[in-house]
Amino acid sequence: QTVPEELQNGGGFGYVVAFRPFGTVSWMQTVVASPDAARYVFRNETLPPFSPYEVKVGVYNNKGEGSFSPVTVVYSAEEEPTRAPTTVLARSLSASDVEVSWAPPRENQHKGRIQGYEVRCWRHDEKEENAKRIRTVGNQTTTRVTSLRGNALYHLAVRAYNTAGTGPSSAAVNVTTKKPRGWTTLPCTTSLSTPRPCTANLDTRRATDPSAISASSSLSPWLQVLYRWNRQSSTSVIETNKTSVELSLPFNEDYIIEIKPFSDGGDGSSSEQIRIPKISNAYARGSGSSTSNACTLSAISTIMISLTARSSL
């Protein structure tokens, strides 16, 4: 910063700039004769990029020299990083977010500071030059890329940057975002034609009506079968990705059953509660009847639950 005129204390005011390579003994000096000067440029074509120098600035006028400022360290201009980050990893966090991490280049492989990193992310069916760009600052070596498309393949690459520009890119890595929420609502029915104890057979069949299948129909969600006694609040859960599952139900108990699809992208909506009434011993010995309920299951498949007789007698 320049010295105000009232503090120059005489004519012939100017500055003395002293500098030396960091770690050396001898100072080089130059005179800047203008009292309004606020900078000095030292040019040397052999100067390596990002070389540290110790600098101090003094003052003088016609009566002699004044004091010097404290010594500070400055650097010559840097070059952009010459090496790419390594060990780039990516993992899907959700249908719209992925996390990227990397290791920085070794310190002796670049000629300047690394001020941060630039992560580029582009979908497989997009051009790399149109990639989404996220910049980190400082030593941060992990970041999150958001607002992506669900169940889509993405490519990601990382490069370091500083004031001179960006360095070379790492090799691209691939990651597929998780499956999104969004299940098609399809009808399902339940039928009861047997006495207790019995076995509940859960069958899954693909819907055949194309208009009833959502954009998520290519997904294969798991199913959760939740069941409990009508008089209890605790619920048992069976998870399966198969087309059938068996539930052994006790004698003389009311049961409530729900079915819910789920996947990496999240849970689908539960079906309506299906109440299976208890069946008496007398009923179990003979007559047999049938009841049917209608329920709605938010899924990409049509679900059938059928109960068949298995007499304990």
TrEMBL record:
What's the protein called, per UniProt?
CNTN4 protein
Q: Which GO terms describe its cellular component?
A: axon; plasma membrane
Q: Which residues form the Fibronectin type-III domain?
A: 1-79, 84-180
Which GO annotations describe the biological process of this protein? axon guidance; brain development
* Cytoplasm recorded as keyword: no
For this protein, the record's PANTHER family field holds: CONTACTIN 3B-RELATED (PTHR44170:SF18), PROTEIN SIDEKICK (PTHR44170)
Question: Which residue windows are transmembrane per the record?
Answer: none
UniProt-annotated location(s): Cell membrane
Native organism is Nyctiprogne leucopyga
State a single Pfam family of this protein.
Answer: fn3
